[in-house]
Specification:
CATH architecture of the largest domain: Orthogonal Bundle
Structural class: mainly alpha
Distance between the termini: 47 Å
Radius of gyration: 16 Å
Shape: globular
Length: about 160
């Protein structure tokens, strides 16, 4: 289990990134915050030891995606009543128009475009994170850019 000070530092370094990864899955701040908190809760409960900040970031990206997917599957099976959501510890601004448009793409394109442009990861790093070949990531980036351009009113894919 991570010491609370170390966990707090990891949270402060990566909370915005985790929130941005979760938001397109839910498109509302409350569910996004729940998923982000669950991601960091899993980190707090794990025995992970990160050699580098990149390893830490990679673990959080994969875990956040898995948390979101799990929650969406669970939500399809059960109905829940909405409760008042507590205020998040850090105030997140509303997503910009680009992130909102990006959220309308299929997940495989949305994820690689986000990691490439928002997080600045190279295609090889994205491939390792997602368990894909680098050539597949480059193809997804190319197709994702075309679909994104069409979504914004550019040329059709």
């Amino acid at each position: 289990m991570l010491p609370s000070k170390e966990l707090e530092q990891i949270y402060l370094r990566h909370c915005r990134m985790v929130w941005n990864i979760c938001y397109p899955f839910f498109m509302n701040p409350q569910d996004t915050e729940d998923a982000a908190q669950e991601t960091f809760l899993r980190l707090a409960q794990s025995d992970e030891i990160f050699e580098t900040e990149d390893n830490e970031k990679a673990w959080l990206i994969v875990t956040a995606r898995n948390v979101c997917r799990d929650e969406l599957r669970r939500a399809r099976r059960t109905e829940r009543s909405l409760e008042e959501a507590p205020e998040p510890p850090i105030e997140f601004p509303e997503p910009d128009e680009t992130l909102l448009a990006l959220s309308r793409l299929p997940e495989k394109y949305r994820t690689v475009l986000y990691l490439y442009y928002y997080e600045g990861l190279e295609t090889e790093a994205i491939a390792r994170l997602l368990g894909k070949r680098a050539s597949t990531v480059r193809s997804d980036l190319h197709r994702g850019r075309q679909k994104f351009k069409a979504l914004l009113g550019g040329v059709r894919p």
